[in-house]
User: Fold Probable DNA 3'-5' helicase RecG from Paracoccus contaminans.
Amino acid sequence: MAVDRAGLGEPPPAPRGRPPILFPLFAGVETLPGVGPRAAEGLAALSITRPRDLLFHLPAAGIRRRRVPRLADLRPPEIATVTVRVQRHVSPAARGRPWRVVCTDGANDLTLVFFHARQPWIESQLPLGETRVVSGKVDLFDGLARMVHPDHILSPSDPPPAGFEPVYPLAGTLTQRVVARAAAAALDRAAPLAEWIEPSVLAREGWPDWRGALAAAHAPAGMADLSPSAPARARLAYDELLAHQMTLALVRQGRRRVAGRITQGDGRLAGRVLAALPWPLTGAQTRAAAEIAADMAAPARMNRLLQGDVGSGKTLVALLALLTAVEAGGQGVLMAPTEILARQHLAAIAPLARAAGVRAALLTGRDKGEARERLLADLAAGLVQVLIGTHAVFQPGVVFDDLRLAVIDEQHRFGVAQRLELGAKGQRPDMLVMTATPIPRSLALAQYGDMDLSVLDEKPPGRQPIATTALPVSRIEEVVARLEAAMARGARAYWVCPLVEESELVDLTAAEDRFGMLRARLGERVRLVHGQMPPDQRDASMADFTAGRAQLLVATTVIEVGVNVPEATIMVIERAESFGLAQLHQLRGRVGRGTGASSCVLLYQEPLSEAGRRRLQILRETEDGFRIAEEDLAMRGAGDVIGTAQSGLPRFRIADLERQADLLATARQDARLLLDQDPDLQSPRGQAVRTLLWLMEQDRAVRLMGSG
Ligand code: ADP
Ligand code: MG
Assistant:
């Protein structure tokens, strides 16, 4: 990737296959006229090492220069271009004082001011009696017009400075002039390229061609041209998005080409489960289940993301998919990121599996010895049909008879490598990834563009809203008193302690202190869980709480994902301001899962920052996870919403995921459509897209697309 190559020196040899038309753009940046070693160093600090990088280094702002015919018409302070005659050189009155050059237009004076200037330079630039065009910021000093360090000093025969001048981001000793000249030289090297954008898209948007877009983006005529929606910039952003989506589409195509298996259920087992349920599926569940079943029945390998807010009923959709695998004579595995979650999935699934006559079993890292051996033998013999587990299912001894479906819950906690490992276990099982973190559509497309998407955008009916309040921690006594009263009426509650300190130890101390305090106040019915506890103690606490022997669970954020105790109706989150929006939403989602009216108390430490205040406010306003995710994105930016490194979320130079979600959706459609029509990128447009992928250094795509 260009951004990683900060060092200069010899450019690496061109990778095989790069179209020769692009060679000049991939030479070293110092091969451009006017770019010496110092300029190259400054450019490298901006991750610009080749002319190509300069093309995509666009002005970030602009300066309007007003041409003012007569000095009398100046309106200081303003940036103006004027034509004057040099009248007088005034040498510095003392050390450290500036040179002054008094100029006139015949009627009025303008003084040019230079600090640290030397006489020969002044005399050569502004010879006495000569006419010069000067441009810069004019202000008033002691009532007299002056211009300190003009940006331009030109002779009347030179081309005048542009009325609107681009301002590039700089680094090191770079100046605007150096970058502008280098960018212009890079543009000169850019040959026109065959169009890769679908003609109808190009026409609809009214975009210029690639080269025209670059030229226009580097020569804005006004502020409007700097906007992301200006046609030239929008087109260049689209190029980036298209290249990225093409890569993902190629990955998807490559995966689909490796023949998967046809897993066709007959609905026999699923029917029994649906009959055993006290309620019907939601519309969204029905839709998602059908999409999954269709994928499984198709010969291509499924790679689908099931996205649904907390409580939208993903587990049931997953179970139906697992049963499809069993109906077809195979097995399925469901993997959860923590043991608590794996146990809970088993608890939810076991009774339904029993109703269907299917054998489900749990495998965690704690299973040892003979019981484990027996389980593994049954799994290898196909007697265990649905396996639920943690990372332990990756262990070498875990062998399936006929693994047809892998469901991964909360995928961001599993690495890509582990997903691949799992893929190696079965005969290329279909993959269903579930995430309870609603992601704005734009991010979902960017991050999971290689997957197909099912969204549970509807919650089971009858859910009551969660009354959410925010209180300063100084009112903690009131909260404890209300909690005590509610517990006396049989309520169950969570108390979440924050992760504020760097060190987990400090956090645990905080949680343990809080536990001690609440236990002293509320007695025996209080339990503690945190990630560092011995597993059996943790299980015991959870089991007590689930069964109602305990009524208050003091926890660190281990309960964030998935913990499901429908009787719990109160959630207290301490130092709520220190959590992110998505996390707060997840935590709150632990209550409001049953029939009882639920509440959530956000305890915060004063003073609240503006962002902290806004987060708590959004949370009080809505329970819609997708809306919360959009707000989160707007507040934090894409890279932070999903950690960039782990997500593989690309860094775009021009495109803006927050504001250009529509372009991204178009790019995804366009990319998939093109591959449907021209899977090997052999058509003229396919060839043009190849060039785009080389230009955008989509290495993964370049490897996938084969030779053209
Ligand atoms: P998620 O995993 O998406 O957060 P769950 O699968 O844990 O949600 O479901 C949340 C709760 O809703 C569970 O108690 C589940 O039994 C219940 N549930 C699921 N589907 C429905 C439905 N269609 N109607 C009513 N309740 C449902
Ligand atoms: Mg769940």
In short: Confidence is low (pLDDT under 50) at residues 1-11, 642-648. DSSP finds 25 helices and 22 strands in the chain. The domain at 466-622 is CATH 3.40.50.300 (Rossmann fold). Residues 429 and 535 are 31 Å apart (CA to CA).
